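REVIEWER CHECKLIST
Item 1: Sequence provided? yes
Item 2: Single chain? yes
Item 3: Sequence as submitted:
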Amino acid sequence: MMNVFAGLGFDVWTMDHENYGRSSRTSGNSDIASGVADLIAASELVVHETGQPRMHFMGESSGALRAAAFAMVRPERVDRLVLNAFTYTGKNSPTLAKRAEQLDYFRTHSRRLRDRAMIRSIFTRDHPGTSDPAVAEALADAELVFGDEVPTGTYLDMTANLPVVDPLEVQAPVMIVRGEHDGIASEEDLLDFFRRLPNPDRQFVVLPGAAHAVVFGHNRHQLWHIMHAFLTMPPRRDRQ
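Item 4: Structure as written out by the authors:
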């Protein structure tokens, strides 16, 4: 995705949150709140390097929760916000209901297993056939060089602490994207969030033939299309 939007002329930045990828390893569980702290630090670096005080944000899954929570506390930094594979209260989510069976573990451990089998399951748990299995293997190859464990904080928040985002506090224009087969959030749950957003510049999109891992799916080009249209929306004109 970064290459796609860089090719479209955007200046694209990303980061590894605490205890992920190349970032430092600590005793923390890297919950959503700590992810917001990471984004506050990272956004100030981007402002310093680019001179741009506002930027677009796109987050997927727990990244969407981080991005939306950041938008609540740093509205002056957020231009337009894309929330992909987002969840609000978790209502009617089969994925989160299954995940909650391990809640006691998430409460007592700061790290969880994310091995090749677990990464493969992300591509098959909702609706097999929405992604190329080779993509799952490539993702596992890239991630497992950093180890086969990741923090539990986002899983704990998503199974015990939702909602972590108050839509009334998100002032930016928002596009919510849901894959047709995504099991982490029901359409009903997301529409409830959408209706509460105060900014009338908002969009709700369901992508057919997509599941939770939209950015890795066969139809990811549709995601690029709608994101590009949203991020390049002409400014509103008011009659004089």
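Item 5: Key structural point noted by reviewer: The chain has a mean pLDDT of 96.
Item 6: Recommendation: ____
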